[in-house]
Amino acid sequence: MDYSIKIGGEAGQGIQTIGDALGRVFARSGYHVFSNQDYESRIRGGHNFYQIRLSNQPLAAARNRIDILVALDQESITRHVDELTLNGMIIYDAAALKFKNDGPAFLDISFEKLALEQGGDKIMANTVATGAVLGMLGMDLDLFLKLIADTFKNKGDHTVQANHKAAQAGYRYAKQHCDKCTYAVAGDEVKPRMLIGGVEAIALGALASGCKFYSAYPMTPSTGIMNYLASKEGEYGIIVEQAEDEIAAINMALGVSYAGLRAMTGTSGGGFALMVEGLSLAGMTETPIVIAMGQRPGPATGLPTRTEQADLEFLVSAGHGEFPRVIFAPGSPLQAFHLTNKAFDIAEKYQIPVFILFDTYLGDCQWTFDRFDTSQVRYFDYRLQGDAFKNLADYKRYAYTESGISPLAMPGDANHVVVVDSDEHDEDGHLVEDSATRTRMVGKRLFKKLPLIKSEIAPPELYGNHEAQVVLTGWGSTYGVMKEAVDELAKSTSIAMLHFSEVFPLPDSTHFDYVTHLRKAKLPLCIENNATGQFSRIIRAATGFEFKAWIHKYDGRPFTVEELIGEIHGQLGNV
């Protein structure tokens, strides 16, 4: 069983409401779910869609073909009718669309009329549509009715009952009139699954890591992190501050980190451009900070609601001067959760900035998981405080050490003065001008730390044939689509995936010699959602290995499984 459902229409028509409800019902029914969105940068109008894929097998990417299209406007039919599978169906409200098609693939359901007949409002047409999809699939309606009760419990019994009746009306109509519906949804007894998106996973990772302050200025696709954390302020004691701009956001987070609490900020490319001076301040003052950086197509405003992987080199080189930084690029919500936790640990341990680099696609898509293994969560307080600080005869914030890591104390926790300075400074933190101190300080915070940091960078994941002739190499959000492409092509091709989620600095070859593995492959392919192959250049600069074949996509949309497989087939002649 593997079905894809697309809900299409204008912004403001409730596309996300239907998609989110279906995704949650499928997950609670025990199915594997993958959902993704495509939306324009506007509050009303335009063309948007929400696509859900469900199966009794794990899913990690979207497909081109759809089995059910819920068309909330006529443009959705025009754009997506050719994506239907052989037995695919389109459900629509002919009266609302002022459009009628009697073809075998079309089922006219009066969403608005049925909602009004059940004592509801036109807005409940979305509930009718959701019920209709469940009826077409032959699924039980009880979980959706429970979801409605949970969602609208604060709006009173009338609202709950009206939505219940609307859902039942759509469900009955589809069951009675969809003669062509032959969908066979597996009925195995399985436990409910967790459905979670990339931004929620990053936010949960921050909470699990003891983050107590988050500051940001709203900017797609990172705003969801701020919204989620704000919803948990009372429960977890975290303060969320919407700053007046990105400059204030990073400086607030740095101030809180200096004061002794774990802090985080988030933004996108244009916003991070404003944060760069603050990044260098963190580098010089050796102040721990975690930065969530959501990629979208640029330059400038670009395509503000689309996706791309074009900011990697920006983060690698951002900031004036030379100082260490770490970049993690999760490929799934599970990786996002654990890498955010690792980011906080690395940032505080080495007193450096650490990035969680994601993109709109990963931020918006949702996956199902059985659970997150919280036993792997790391929390160690590296700060010098309490009696250990008070009993020191002398405290030097930037003391020279063998590891390059100086004691990090909390101001006001003892009689010692904690001095930091954005100028070059001595061990006490006071500014200096002499060349000898400058050279020694650069060695302390850069050259001594780097080998230790690099030793903590995990090797890439190798999936598939370990002696493969074709090796797909990628980073970040290409994880899922590469994995599914390998599964599909492995039936006829010697193929594997090499996926990097810890991308800078690159891991060494101590645990896995991935460079030798790439050299042995007949066709190493680097797959990126950008135009110039930024990650392939980083690999070449760090290791000397140069890819001769690439697959790049930079139209603001992610790869689908069929698209990537088609591109790979085009390269197989080189094997």
Task: Let me know the number of strands.
Answer: 20
| Main beta-sheet strand count, sense and barrel state | 8 strands, mixed
The CATH level-2 architecture of the largest domain is identified as 3-Layer(aba) Sandwich
Q: Unreliable segments (pLDDT under 50, ≥5 consecutive)?
A: none
Overview of the structural elements:
This protein is an alpha/beta fold and 575 residues long. It folds into 4 domains: 2-177, 3-Layer(aba) Sandwich (Pyruvate-ferredoxin Oxidoreductase, domain 3), CATH 3.40.920.10; 196-376, Rossmann fold; 383-456, no CATH class; 461-574, Rossmann fold. The chain is built from 22 helices and 20 strands. Helix 19 (479-489) links the parallel strand 16 (470-475) and strand 17. Helix 4 (111-117) packs across helix 5 (125-137) and helix 5 (125-137) crosses helix 7. The longest helix has 21 residues, at 157-177. It is globular and about 85 Å long. The mean pLDDT is 95.
What's the short story on this structure?
With 575 residues, the chain is of the alpha/beta class. Helix content is 39%, strand content 20%.
Explain the layout of strands and helices.
Elements (H helix, E strand, L loop, with lengths): L1 E10 L3 H14 L3 E7 L6 E11 L10 E6 L2 H7 L3 E9 L1 H4 L8 E3 L2 H7 L7 H13 L4 H10 L5 H21 L16 E4 H11 L4 E4 L6 H9 L1 H4 L2 E4 L3 H14 L3 E6 H17 L3 E7 L16 H6 L8 E3 L4 H18 L2 E7 H5 L1 E4 L17 H4 L44 H13 L1 H7 L5 E4 L5 E6 L3 H11 L5 E6 L1 E3 L9 H7 L2 E6 L5 H10 L5 E4 L8 H11 L4
Parallel strand pairs: 1-4, 4-5, 5-6, 8-9, 8-10, 10-11, 11-13, 12-13, 16-17, 16-19, 19-20
Antiparallel strand pairs: 1-3, 2-3, 2-14, 7-14, 12-18, 15-17
Helix pairs in contact: 1-5, 4-5, 4-7, 5-7, 6-7, 8-9, 8-14, 11-12, 19-22
